[in-house]
Design brief:
By secondary structure, the protein is mainly α. It has helices spanning 12-22, 31-58, 66-75, 82-151. The longest helix is centred in the C-terminal third of the chain and has 70 residues, at 82-151.
Length: 152
Amino acid sequence: MAERPEDLNLPNAVITRIIKEALPDGVNVSKEARRAISQAASVFVLYATSCANNFAMKAKRKTLNAGDVLAAMEEMEFERFLEPLREALEVYKKGQKGKKEVSEQKRKDKEKKNDSENDKSREEEEEEEEERMEEEPEAENEAEAEEEEVDN
C-alpha cells in the first residue's frame, strides 16, 4: 500500500480541473481549499473502495467490479449518484466496445493484407516454378544431344 499519507492523495492537476469544471468562470479557489478538497476526495475514494471491497469479499472475489462500487455507493447513502454513475459506466462500456471493434477491424484488415501479399508471393513462386519446369526439359534435351554427340 502507500508508504506515506500523501501517496493516497489524488493528483493536484486532476482536482484543479474538476474544481474549475464545477465552478462558474471567474471564481478562484485558494491553494488551501484545493488541498482540503483533494484530501476529502482521497478519503471518499478510499472509503468507497473499502465498502466495494467488502461486497467483493462477501462474493468470495478478489477483484472489484462496477456492481461492487454501485452497491457501496448505495450502502454509503449516496443513492443520488447511482444513476449518473450507471450512465457514465454505459458510456465507458460503449467507448471500450468501439475501441475493441476498431482494433478488431484493424487486425482483420492487416490479416487480409498479409493474406493478399502471401497470395501474391505464392503466385510469383508458382510462376517461377513453372518457368523453371519449362527450362529444365530444354536443358535435359541439350544434355542428351551432347551425350549423343560424344557417343558418336
